[in-house]
């Protein structure tokens, strides 16, 4: 990654709260995919494991592998939760020559897959921004559920 882009991302202020726009979140994921070398996949699912957002490198199209990898991440996340090791924290797992980052915000889970050589500082900045957006989405879902009752 270009050092100038890296500095810009590191010095960037926190992502603004999205104005209810999934388009802005999609753009955030698309930009991250373009600027973070080695970033292969970002998947956000709801509590039922239904994919809500997905951004992947064009050459990363292995549906069965992706499903298996994400299922393993869920299992690890749930095992960690049962052990009461900081629920809600960001987990970083190593799987072969990949790093897998998973976290949960409200009812949303996010799984990020990147190459072993990726700049994890930039990946964790992306995690922070995604968590901010998912916090807003979780609040919006909660509010819409309470108004419909």
UniProtKB/TrEMBL annotation:
GO terms for biological process: cellular response to amino acid stimulus; positive regulation of TOR signaling. This is Dynein light chain. It comes from the Eukaryota. GO terms for cellular component: Ragulator complex. Pfam families: MAPKK1_Int. Belongs to the LAMTOR3 family. SUPFAM superfamilies: Roadblock/LC7 domain. InterPro entries: LAMTOR3. SMART domains: MAPKK1_Int.
């Amino acid at each position: 990654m270009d050092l100038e882009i890296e500095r810009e991302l590191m010095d960037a202020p926190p992502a603004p709260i999205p104005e209810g726009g999934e388009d802005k979140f999609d753009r955030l994921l698309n930009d991250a995919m373009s600027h973070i070398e080695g970033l292969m996949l970002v998947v956000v699912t709801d509590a039922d494991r239904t994919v809500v957002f997905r951004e992947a490198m064009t050459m990363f199209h292995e549906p069965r592998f992706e499903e298996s990898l994400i299922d393993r991440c869920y299992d690890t996340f749930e095992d960690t939760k049962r052990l009461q090791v900081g629920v809600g924290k960001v987990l970083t797992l190593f799987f072969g020559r990949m790093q897998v980052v998973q976290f949960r915000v409200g009812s949303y889970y996010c799984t990020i897959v990147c190459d072993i050589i990726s700049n994890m500082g930039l990946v964790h900045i992306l995690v922070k921004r995604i968590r901010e957006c998912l916090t807003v989405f979780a609040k919006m879902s909660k509010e819409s559920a309470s108004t419909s009752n």
